[in-house]
């Protein structure tokens, strides 16, 4: 085996593979370089409950937990896990597969018992990362990897919403984002979006009025209008105004989209916000959890030619910001108790030390428990942002949790 071959050549071989044949190409590559006897790509399902093997559909292997066991541990911690197997001469290396902070799944590679030294595991991780990038690119040309993420059929509304999303996470030196949607297979109106450039991050959370297809169509219009305005290079308030006009022109005020728009300066930590509706913003700073008080303005599309104003706030290195949709803070249990700020504070306090991805999932899990495990009556979106800041990132004072 040739483990000294540059990683760039591995990327080239994966890039040259047919979109549907990436796992097979990775298997051949790993067999040549590391003597791998078995290679399996597991992708996280939409609900982030299981990791499912990518195989020739409709046939597939059994899923494994996305939170327990060696593969689940590699996925949640985003660190390689070496499993000692019943076969004395082999080990199973579980490698997280992520693309710029968006967790896709786990690559499982069976190698000889003497091959899983730290240097080899590091090189295996590089190939797992290269494979992740190719899986994302291949999604333009094949449905294989999207289908492998499903434990059951999506509703049409959910299909539309998942196609709108930028991913479920994003990481740069200055910040780490983790996000979660529920019910994953039947969402209708909730959405999150983000975009970054050299010096700024823009983040939005949108809750389209209604349910099902109607809500999905409304949210698609809202997100498309916000992206169009953002890409025109205009300010946050004007982005809201243009999206507001687009929705009002289509619906005449009969329906609307509640949206929280946020923009951050990556160097200074200064934030701008337009609160156009019901999503709420919480900030964790040290042991303190506080609701960031913003001026409530009209939801997008409720009235003709609504004018919006920006507010400013400050984030500091080490801060965690959590945005929750109405489906989180407004949900009631069977006894009529609102999920509300009290329960949310408990969940946020208990998840402070885990990654933003797992924190967002835990908030939704707490919400499901609150309603009694019967399933959510409305969509719930949670976006968790850990702020590192440019100065702290450059000096290594605060390390991102990816």
Describe the structure.
The chain is an alpha+beta fold. It is 35% helix and 27% strand. It has twelve helices and 17 strands. The chain has a six-stranded antiparallel sheet. Strands 7-8-17-16-13-14 form a six-stranded antiparallel sheet. Helix 1 (7-16) runs antiparallel to helix 2 (22-34) and helix 6 runs parallel beside helix 7 (212-231). It is globular. This is Phosphatase.
Summarize model confidence as the mean pLDDT.
90
Note the gap between the termini.
32 Å
Computed structural class = alpha+beta
* Low-pLDDT segments, ≥5 res: none
The total of helices stands at 12
The largest beta-sheet arranges its strands as 3-2-1-6-5-4
Helix content: 25-40%
SSE run: HHEEEHEEEHHHEEEEHHEEEEEEHHHEH
Tertiary shape? globular
Question: What integer value in Å does the Rg equal?
Answer: 22 Å
Main sheet makeup: 6 strands, antiparallel
Strand tally is 17
Task: Based on the model shown, name its key terms.
402 residues; alpha+beta; 6-stranded antiparallel sheet; 12 helices; 17 strands; 35% helix; 27% strand; globular
Describe what is shown at a glance.
One of its GO terms (molecular function) is phosphatase activity. Residues 172-387 form the PPM-type phosphatase domain. This protein has helices at residues 7-16, 22-34, 69-77, 118-138, 144-148, 156-164, 212-231, 236-251, 326-329, 340-350, 356-370, 390-395, and strands spanning 38-44, 50-53, 64-65, 81-84, 90-99, 102-112, 169-172, 175-182, 190-196, 200-208, 257-265, 270-276, 280-285, 288-291, 311-314, 320-324, 380-387.
